[in-house]
Each structure stands twice: as structure tokens, then as C-alpha cells.
Amino acid sequence: DPPRVDLQGQLMGGFDEKAYLVAKQLKPGDDPYREHAFNLQESDRLGSERAIRDTRHYRCASLNFDTDLPSTSIIITFHNEARSTLLRTVKSVLMRSPPSLIQEIILIDDFSSDPDDCQLLSQIPKVRCLRNGRREGLIRSRVRGANTASAAILTFLDSHCEVNADWLQPMIQRVKEDHTRVVSPIIDVISLDNFAYLAASADLRGGFDWSLHFKWEQIPIEQKMARSDPTQPIRTPVIAGGIFVMDKSWFNHLGQYDTHMDIWGGENFELSFRVWMCGGSLEILPCSRVGHVFRKRHPYDFPEGNALTYIKNTRRAAEVWMDEYKQYYYSARPSAQGKAFGRSVHRLTLRRKLNCKPFRWYMENVYPELRYKFKYLTQCLQNHSLSFTFYPDFAQNVQTCLIIFTTFTFLLLLLPVLRTLCGQKYVDTLNSSVSFLTIEALGERRPPPRLISGPPRGPPHPRSPPKFNHFFLIPFPTNPENFIQICP
Ligand SMILES: [Mn+2]
């Protein structure tokens, strides 16, 4: 990092950092976690330009980038962010990015209590401040920021981050090479208690379950084995959504964001499905690292309530993008059914206009790993000595399988029965753990459809009944019949 004197003059202009921070510090005796859900005392104590460990793989340091990379507009939205974390976010961008790549830093103050939190920062060169006249939420605030951005590439950043060494070049390089790529850094962890900067695993990607709950998950083993170069991008089914880089014309072409979504949550699914299904791709770049303070609760309020807002937003994503698979979202989130989610006709029109692929394509090509184990279910089935028809040679790689053929209507009848038999714990497991395979995906191993009481294919299995630990729902793509398969 450059010496402090130069920093003040060249990067910070006439901005009076000390006055900015002192005006809003924790008062003695106040709970340091109350207002921001992280330890404010520790954040204030740190200062605005601490050194952090370079958490990249050592081979990242020798990567080369084009000398004529285009510049980017950094868009940071916030609502009542702590001054010390907000300033550290802005300052880390100025300190750890090549100046020529930063066109501007656009702060969108989403109607914070104190307009000065944002306004005073606009004394820093390149920093602009826009304030919403009412609470709009992350989604509409980002769209406002994007609409005013003057660079060809957009970089969305959260308001309590610290960017790491050379974080920006890998992302801009990838987007420059192919403008349909949407790229994310590896998001390192800044401790909410002591603000220690901790390296996140480089083997993770974004995933989710049927309730549209985001989670980090291991890269599938085959992909991991095929990775010989740790600096290579990681394909990801979804992005976490807080931090990513995207070409501005691609962002606009794909319909920006669904601006009928409120405050926070679900917008990352909508964007991720849209990018993949409408001709783009998502990746995580292991040579780009950004630290983020992960919190256990939202310190701000949702005008309509946290849970309700999340359901409304995810329901909009499911209704517009998930086709027939949305029924599994509803089965995982029964409370979403009947909740108001606004009009979706504009987003459906957009999807048609962009000629986007069906969700089934996404399931088969982008996220075929979406499946879960059914511990409770299988234990329960054994406890009740439920007998089904066995197809012992169904699939070589899963050994013995139990298959129940049924129509979807019958499935809807069957599932509540199983739930009643197996209790609430089982219901929860079922709700979040339904998996899909298509007949095509099974290829040669597909047995002919049979009735639930039909005879087994091949000779009776010689062994005692296996212990079940998988449960698949397999929708037929071409006819309304479905079957359930339970494998050991
Ligand atoms: Mn955050």
C-alpha cells in the first residue's frame, strides 16, 4: 500500500476523515452490537486503512492482465451503515485498485437516518452520493446506481467490505473477454466480533435448496478433479449477490433487476436464473478476493417484515423462472402459497422477448447436483415396514433401487400420507430435500414405466432389503406420469 501522506493527498482529496468518524462513534456504555449487528467498537478502533493478508493462491500473483482494461463504476448501496465500515469499503477500493480502472464510486444512500453519512464522503475524489427520498431497498437502489453509472462495466459491492490485493483486474478481464459473463470474487470473512480477516475456501460455489435458501457448497468432485490450475474460474449455479461485476449493456439487455422485489433477498436467484437461462454464465474467480462482514441478523427493518419480503421476492423468482419446478419451491415453502407477490407479466414478457431457455435446461446443464439425502424418510419407511417393488438392476452406480411409479396427482396424495406417518421432522426434511433427475439424464438405465404394483424387472434381489438413503422425485418430461425412486 502507498504511504499515508500520498494517500491523503491523491486519493482522499480534502476529505476530513477524523471529523467524519469522530462525529458518529459508539457512546460509552452502549451495546456495540445493537445498531449494526457487528462489533462497532472494534470496527471504529481499526482505522480506515489497515493492512490485510493477501489470501489468494500464490500463483494468482503472476497472472497477467490486458493493459487496456476498461474502467468500472463501483456501485455501493447502503441503509444506516456504520461510518467506519462504509469508509473502509470505499478506501480499500481506492487503495487496492489501479486508479485507471475506477471511473467512479457511486454511493446510493437508501434513506439512512443521517444524510451526512453519505454526503460527506462525496468530498473524496471520484466518490458520488445519491440519496433516495424514501426507502427503496437494495434492488431498486442498485438499478438507480446502474442507470447513472458512466463506465461500461458495473461493479456491485456491499457496504461493509474490504477489497483485497488486485481484486478488480481478474474480474474486468473476464468480462472484457466475454461480456455475457457475470463474475464474483471469493468472499472472505471479516469477523463480526473482532474484525479479523479470514480466508474463505477456494473450493466453494453458490448453491441452494428448493426453498430458495442460498448456501455455499463444495464444487462437485468431478469438477474438482478436473481443476489442474487453481487460478481458473469456478462455474457457479448462483451467486451470493452482494458482490459481482457485470457488463452494463448486458445488465440492461437482460432487464437489470426485477424492481418489484423489495428491500433484500431473492434477487440473486432471479438474476442468476436469468443470466444462465438467457445466454450468459456465472463464475467465481479465485484470484479475486473481497472481505465481507457476514452477520447473523439484519440490523435494519423490513417495512413488511423480513420473512414476508423474502417470500414475496423468492416467489416472484419462482413464478417467472422456474416453470413446472416451481411446485417444488411451494412444497418446500408451503407458506409462500397464497402470499401476494405483485404482477409478474412484465418479467414474463421479458423472458419471452429474450427467448430464454426453460428451467429444465438449467437443471440439466447448470445444476444437476441439486438432490438430497432422505435420512428421516428412509428410516421411517423401514420403521413402518413399507413394502415397495424392487428393481435390483436399475442403475449400476446406485446399486439397488426402489422405484414407485405414479402420476403426479398420486404423488400429491402419497406425500401427505408419508408425512403423517413420519412426523414433523420428516416433513421438514422432505420439504427442503426434493431432488430431480430426468429420464434423459438416466439414459440407458431407464426402466420401462410400470405401475406401483408391477412385477420387478430381473430376478428377485438375493440380499435382504437395503437401507435406503436417497429419495428422488423424477418428473417425466414428455408425459404427466411421475415416479419415485428410492435407492440405498
Ligand atoms: Mn452484507
Structure description:
- The protein starts with a helix and ends with a strand.
- The chain has 17 helices and 16 strands.
- The radius of gyration is 25 Å and the shape is globular.
- The protein has two domains: 287 residues, Alpha-Beta Complex (Spore Coat Polysaccharide Biosynthesis Protein SpsA, Chain A), CATH 3.90.550; 67 residues, ppGaNTase-T1 linker domain-like (Helicase, Ruva Protein, domain 3).
- The C terminus is likely disordered.
- A hairpin with a 6-residue loop joins strand 6 and strand 7.
- It is α+β, with helices and mostly antiparallel strands.
- Strands 1, 2, 3, 4, 5, 6, 7, 10, 11 and 12 form a ten-stranded mixed beta sheet that branches. A four-stranded antiparallel beta sheet has the order 13-14-16-15.
- Manganese (II) ion binds next to loops.
**For this structure, what is the CATH homologous superfamily of the largest domain?**
Spore Coat Polysaccharide Biosynthesis Protein SpsA, Chain A
What is the architecture of the largest domain at the second tier of CATH?
Answer: Alpha-Beta Complex
Measured as a percent range, the helix fraction is: 25-40%
Provide the structure class.
alpha+beta
Q: Can you tell me the overall shape? A: globular
> What ligand molecules are bound, each kind once?
manganese (II) ion
Number of helices: 17
The CATH topology of the largest domain is what? Answer: Spore Coat Polysaccharide Biosynthesis Protein SpsA, Chain A
Q: Give the domain tally.
A: 2
- In whole angstroms, how far apart are the ends? 56 Å
